[in-house]
Design goal:
278 residues; alpha/beta; Rossmann fold; seven-stranded mixed sheet; 13 helices; 38% helix; globular
Length: 278
């Protein structure tokens, strides 16, 4: 058992998930059929455990194409940073169930009991029962993602602007932690809401919840990564990139009078970057 300190709820969940998964140890076929990567990803995305609301966002988030671009394979050890409500966890957990390993780096739950994310995982062990562990992740203080050189891939989706809001040093700490836990040749896959090119990064993150792509690339290079690719999979040409992303779907946080206009734009324009540890 890991040394959990005050994060009793997180450690209890690790033990619970391990116990739940033990019942499936003899038969690790998991909730989706085994096959080639593309077929397995499509099956995971189509899974009945995903809510209709989450599936409706596939048209903007392109999970199959995004994960294929990052080069995910079903036998990898993958670390997901800041999973939030588990939108991508619903896809990653069943995809990696039979042959891979998924580590969730999540904000520590408040109090002694499990948080909503942990409760979600405990509620469906047939989908989430093989998650290897959950580690407390609260940068810049808590950024230990596991033993150095132990992961094939680290992923984070639409979170980097929050870390930049904390401070540029916090974002750098996240990139450095990802670099540290990855094996040589390992991939750090990043998506986030895109600001206009060469916009002020800190101002964009605070006012719009966006980051300029050039700033994100520089952050990766500072940490020691090389940029292996930039994809337009999650591009939305209708987004002018100067709107607070919460005014766009699905939040539509602005006045009702603008909702029709925001819906016509769709979800935010997003960068999709693949960094590799040399």
């Amino acid at each position: 058992m890991a040394n959990c300190g005050k994060f009793v709820g997180g450690c209890m969940l690790v033990a619970t998930l391990a116990f739940a998964g033990a019942g499936f140890a003899a038969e690790r076929s998991g909730p989706i059929a085994q096959g080639d990567t593309a077929t397995m990803l499509k099956e995971a995305v189509a899974g009945s455990w995903r809510s209709p609301a989450n599936k409706a966002r596939d048209q903007y988030r392109h999970p199959v194409e995004t994960l294929e671009f990052f080069g995910i394979k079903p036998d990898m050890t993958v670390v997901e940073l800041a999973p939030g409500g588990g939108w991508y966890t619903e896809i990653l957990a069943p995809f990696l169930y039979a042959h891979g390993s998924l580590v969730e780096a999540s904000s520590p739950p408040r109090g002694n009991g499990p948080g909503k994310f942990e409760q979600k995982l405990k509620a469906d062990p047939k989908v989430y029962g093989r998650i290897a562990k959950i580690v407390p992740f609260s940068p810049p203080q808590q950024v230990n993602l596991g033993p150095d050189g132990s992961a094939d891939m680290v992923l984070t989706f639409r979170n980097t602007h929050d870390w930049l809001n904390e401070s540029p040093a916090t974002l750098d700490a996240v990139f450095e932690a990802a670099f540290k836990v990855l094996k040589p040749g390992g991939v750090f896959g990043v998506t986030d809401h895109r600001a206009r090119p060469f916009a002020d990064a800190l101002q964009s993150s605070k006012a719009l919840h966006r980051i300029p792509e050039d700033y994100m690339i520089e952050a990766g290079l500072r940490a020691g990564f090389r940029l292996a690719g930039a994809s337009e999979i999650n591009r939305n040409p209708n987004d002018p990139e100067d709107i607070n992303i919460h005014r766009l779907p699905p939040d539509l946080s602005g006045p009702e009078s603008e909702h029709a206009k925001m819906k016509a734009i769709g979800e935010s324009d997003r960068m999709t970057l693949k960094f590799v540890k040399p």
